[in-house]
Amino acid sequence: MKNIILVFFILFLFFFPKGNAQCTTEKFTLLRSDTIASENYTLVMDSGKVRKLNPNKYIVSLTYHEKGYFAIFSIKGQKGWTAIDFNEKTLFEVYNTISNEPWPDQLIEDRIRILGKNKKIGFANECGKIIIKPKFDYATSFNNGYAIVGKKCPDSSNKCNKYGYVNKNGKVLKIGNYTFDQIQKEINWKDINQD
Hints:
- By secondary structure, this protein is mainly beta.
- It is 11% helix and 36% strand.
- Strand 10 and strand 11 (130-136) form a beta hairpin.
- The longest helix is centred in the N-terminal third of the chain and has 14 residues, at 2-15.
């Protein structure tokens, strides 16, 4: 009986793998063409389906020529960065990585930082699905499967009263009266953007 259960378990893992297979749409590429008056954007699916975007709505994107399940834009009349799918459905607000400079976060280890309405930070995966709901005052990108998070951070700074870390599913593995450096050393976290 144990062998039969083991065989079914292995078959389940084989036919229902985790990861990118969970994306329900196909990837598309964001193309940009410049005119004298504006930048024009077009979404092109791998199957050849094309969607031209309204140049009066989508102001700028720093993710063109990348293939993915969502594109990131600055949208006229909205603050920050917005992720949209091929059908132009808004998925989430993307975290801006550099203060006072327009620079949206990027996918690192299949996670991208997002902002909730309360300006708390969470994470979405490459499919555009929110994996970790926004609940942290501060969060780094993932490195070696962990992200450093902070709570009780006055003035939205990265100087928090509590630091800890989470796994890719959002499980808080440790949080408390620790410094950023203590947590960073404990999990051997490195900022890949500074290498």
